Amino acid sequence: GIARERVHPALDDLAGIADGRAGPEQQALAVDLDQHLRRLIAQLPRNLRDVLLLEQTGDYKYEEIAAMLATPIGTVKWRIWEARRRLRGGRRTAMPRTCCGATHSSGFAS
Q1: 102: which strand partners?
Q2: pLDDT in tens, 15-61
Q3: What is the SS3 string spanning 26-85?
Q4: H or E element that contains 89
Q5: How confident is residue 6, by pLDDT bands cut at 50, 70 and 90?
């Protein structure tokens, strides 16, 4: 299969959160990242946001999304690509670099 693109380089550092090994700084970083990504997704135009959320959280295939939205599959693929492109650009800006008074390496460029 095709390997999925890594969403964020710092996510590897957050692996301990799921299994309870994360410390307070990692937990705060995960909250910051989650809030930032939610804001970026909310700022996407609705047509991009809808297909992205269906594909990512609904676990639907492109064909299923196209049928649900009565949209050509090529359009669905482009919208998902465009949404991801915009998120990649947006995550490089405005991500808090400090939390709870502690500076952390977020992986985002300032």
Answers
A1: 99
A2: 555 556 667 777 777 777 778 888 889 999 999 999 999 998 888 99
A3: HHHHHHHHHHHHHHHHHHCCHHHHHHHHHHHCCCCCHHHHHHHHCCCHHHHHHHHHHHHH
A4: helix 73-90
A5: very low
Question: Which residue's structure tokens are 């009565």?
Answer: 70
The first and second tokens of residue 16, run together, are 């301990």
Give the residue, 5 or 76, on which the prediction is more confident.
Answer: 76
In angstroms, rounded to a whole number, what is the distance separating the alpha carbons of residues 84 and 7?
9
Cα separation, 92 vs 48, in Å, equals 19
Contact of 97 with 110, CB cutoff 8 Å: yes
Q: CA–CA separation, 93 vs 96, rounded Å? A: 9
Residues with Cβ within 8 Å of 83's Cβ and at least 6 positions away in sequence, in order, are: 44, 48, 49, 51, 52
Q: For residue 98, give the 3-state DSSP assignment.
A: strand
